[in-house]
C-alpha cells in the first residue's frame, strides 16, 4: 500500500514539474479538488479529446456532435431526478472529524481483498513459472475463491442497501467489517447521511426576481433535451447517437486522489438512441467497441476490466464500468449504461412536449431507448499519464525517468536540438521547426549538454529528439532518437515528416480497434 502511495506521489509531483497539472489558485494556497492544466497538460488533454471525438463522431456515420450550455432550465434537473436523488452517502469520523463517502470506504475494503488475490497470483506465478494457468488458479485456489466470494457478497449487500436507501445497514456493514478511518485508525463513526451534490447559482439582475439555477452535474441532459432538434435538423434515423464533451460540476465533499475526483471536471459522453427491445444487443456492442478504443492506445490489456453493477440506477436495466488499474487500484474509468426510455419519457412528462420518433417502416411513434457511454476526460488523462510514467534501470547502472505516453497523444511530437549554439546549427534547427510545425507540435531546446536534453524530453514524454550537428551542414542529415528504445539513427531532413507521421498518425492508432 505504501508503495502505491509513493508511486502516486511521484505521478502528482511529475505532473507539476513538467507543466501538466497545477493546483488551482496555488499562490492563494489552492482550492481543494480543483486543478488547472499546464502547457503540456492542455495539449495532452486536447489530444485525448480529439482521439475520442474522431473514433466516436468522425468514424461513425450515424453519430453527430453537440455542444450544449452549462446553464439549463431548472426543471431539467427535476425531470432528470437530480434534484431529488443526486446524493452521496456520507459518514463522519467523530475522532478525526474527517468525512468520507460510505460506499468508497466499503469499496476500498474490497480493493484490499483484490490486492490479496493479486499477491497470491504473483506467488503462484513465481512458483509454477511457464506452467502457471492463471484462470484455473483464480477459479480453484481456496484462498482466492474465499476472498472473491467475500468481496462479491460485501458489494452485493452494499448495492442492495443503497438501492433501498437503507443507510442504517450501510453503517452496520462498516461496523461489521471493522473499517477504520484511514487518517486516524479510529472506528468511532456517525450514522450515514445523504448529501446532494449539485452546485446552486442564480440567474437574474436582482435578488428578488433571480431564478435558482444549477451548474450541470453531467452533460447528458443537454443531449436529451436537444434530441428532437438534432434528429429533425439532421434527418437522423434510429439508431443514431449524439456525442458531447464538456465541463460538469459536482460538490464532491470527499474529493481526493488528485484529478481522479474533482469538483469541476470534463466528460466525454455519447447517448445512442435505439428502438425499444434492442437494448441488450446494443449494450453488448458498445461494451466491446469502447474496450477496443481503450486497448488501441496500448496501455496494456491487463490494466482494464469490466465491472457489472450490482446496484442499478432506477432508470437502468444494465450497467457496467470499464475499470482501469490506477496507482491506487482498479477504479471506474468509463460507464456503459442501458438507460431505457427514462430520460426522454421524463422530459416529455415535465415539458409537456412530445419527444418521440416516428418510424416510417412500422408507421408508429415511440419514445426511443438510450444506450449511454460516458467517460471522464480527467480520469482518462490520469490513466494515460500514471501508466506512462516509468523509472528505468539502464545498462550502465543509471536510471532514467521516462513518460512513455502513446505517441499519438504526446503533447510535443519532436524536440529539435542543435548540438552547439554556434556554427549555424541553431539556424538549421529553426528551419526544420518552420517546416514541421505545420503538421506537428514541435519544440526547440538548446540549453545543457545533449544527454541532459534527451533526459528532459524523456521525462516530458516527447517521442522524438532530432539533433542537428556539423554533419547536417554537409549532407542534410540529422540524428533522430526514439524515446522508448533510446535508439538513434541517421536520417535525411527530408524524411523527418514521414517518420514522425507514421508514429503519431491517429488513423494508424485507431485502426487497431478492428
Automatic annotation (TrEMBL):
The keyword Ribosomal protein does not apply. Its main location: cytoplasm. Residues 177-418 form the Aminoacyl-transfer RNA synthetases class-II family profile domain. Substrate binds at residues 101, 218, 265-269, 372-376. Pfam families: HGTP_anticodon, tRNA-synt_2b. It is found in: Cytoplasm. Keywords: Aminoacyl-tRNA synthetase, ATP-binding, Cytoplasm, Ligase, Nucleotide-binding, Protein biosynthesis. Catalyzes the attachment of glycine to tRNA(Gly). This is Glycine--tRNA ligase.
Amino acid at each position: 500500500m505504501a508503495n502505491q502511495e509513493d508511486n502516486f506521489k511521484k505521478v502528482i509531483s511529475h505532473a507539476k514539474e513538467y507543466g501538466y497539472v497545477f493546483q488551482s489558485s496555488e499562490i492563494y494556497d489552492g482550492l481543494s479538488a480543483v486543478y488547472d492544466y499546464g502547457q503540456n497538460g492542455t495539449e495532452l488533454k486536447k489530444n485525448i479529446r480529439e482521439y475520442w471525438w474522431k473514433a466516436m463522431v468522425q468514424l461513425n456515420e450515424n453519430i453527430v456532435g453537440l455542444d450544449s450550455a452549462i446553464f439549463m432550465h431548472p426543471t431539467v434537473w427535476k425531470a432528470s431526478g437530480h434534484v431529488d436523488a443526486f446524493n452521496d452517502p456520507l459518514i463522519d469520523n467523530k475522532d478525526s472529524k474527517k468525512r468520507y463517502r460510505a460506499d468508497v470506504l466499503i469499496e476500498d475494503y474490497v480493493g484490499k481483498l483484490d490486492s490479496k488475490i493479486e499477491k497470491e497470483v504473483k506467488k503462484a506465478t513465481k512458483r509454477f513459472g511457464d506452467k502457471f494457468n492463471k484462470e484455473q488458479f483464480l477459479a480453484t485456489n481456496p484462498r482466492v475463491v474465499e476472498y472473491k466470494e467475500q468481496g462479491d457478497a460485501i458489494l452485493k449487500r452494499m448495492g442492495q442497501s443503497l438501492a433501498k436507501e437503507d443507510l442504517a445497514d450501510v453503517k452496520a456493514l462498516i461496523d461489521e467489517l471493522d473499517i477504520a478511518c484511514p487518517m486516524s485508525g479510529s472506528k468511532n463513526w456517525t450514522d450515514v447521511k445523504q448529501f446532494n451534490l449539485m452546485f446552486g447559482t442564480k440567474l437574474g439582475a436582482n435578488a428578488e426576481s433571480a431564478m435558482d439555477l444549477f451548474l450541470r452535474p453531467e452533460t447528458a441532459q443537454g443531449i436529451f433535451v436537444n434530441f428532437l432538434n438534432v434528429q429533425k435538423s439532421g434527418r437522423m434515423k434510429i439508431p443514431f447517437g449524439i456525442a458531447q464533451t464538456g465541463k460538469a460540476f459536482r460538490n464532491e465533499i470527499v474529493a481526493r486522489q488528485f484529478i481522479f475526483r474533482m469538483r469541476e471536471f470534463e466528460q466525454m459522453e455519447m447517448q445512442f438512441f435505439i428502438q425499444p427491445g434492442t437494448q441488450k444487443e446494443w449494450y453488448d456492442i458498445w461494451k466491446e467497441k469502447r474496450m477496443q478504443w481503450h486497448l488501441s492506445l496500448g496501455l496494456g490489456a491487463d490494466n482494464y476490466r469490466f465491472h457489472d453493477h450490482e446496484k442499478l440506477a432506477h432508470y437502468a436495466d444494465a450497467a457496467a464500468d470499464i475499470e482501469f488499474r490506477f496507482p491506487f487500484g482498479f477504479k471506474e474509468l468509463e460507464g456503459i449504461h442501458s438507460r431505457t426510455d427514462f430520460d426522454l419519457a421524463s422530459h416529455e412528462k415535465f415539458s409537456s412536449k412530445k419527444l418521440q420518433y416516428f418510424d416510417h417502416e412500422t408507421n408508429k411513434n415511440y419514445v426511443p431507448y438510450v444506450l449511454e457511454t460516458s467517460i471522464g476526460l480527467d480520469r482518462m488523462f490520469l490513466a494515460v499519464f500514471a501508466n506512462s510514467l516509468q523509472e528505468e534501470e539502464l545498462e550502465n547502472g543509471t536510471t532514467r525517468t521516462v513518460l512513455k505516453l502513446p505517441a499519438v497523444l504526446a503533447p510535443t511530437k519532436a524536440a529539435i536540438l542543435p548540438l552547439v549554439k554556434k556554427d549555424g546549427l541553431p539556424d538549421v534547427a529553426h528551419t526544420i521547426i518552420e517546416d514541421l510545425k505545420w503538421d506537428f507540435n514541435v519544440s526547440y531546446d538548446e540549453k545543457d549538454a545533449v544527454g541532459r536534453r534527451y533526459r528532459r524530453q524523456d521525462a516530458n514524454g516527447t517521442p522524438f529528439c532530432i539533433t542537428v550537428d556539423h554533419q547536417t551542414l554537409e549532407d542534410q542529415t540529422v540524428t533522430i532518437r526514439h524515446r522508448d528504445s533510446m535508439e538513434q539513427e541517421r536520417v535525411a531532413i527530408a524524411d523527418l515528416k514521414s517518420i514522425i507521421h507514421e508514429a503519431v498518425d491517429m488513423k494508424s492508432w485507431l485502426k487497431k480497434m478492428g
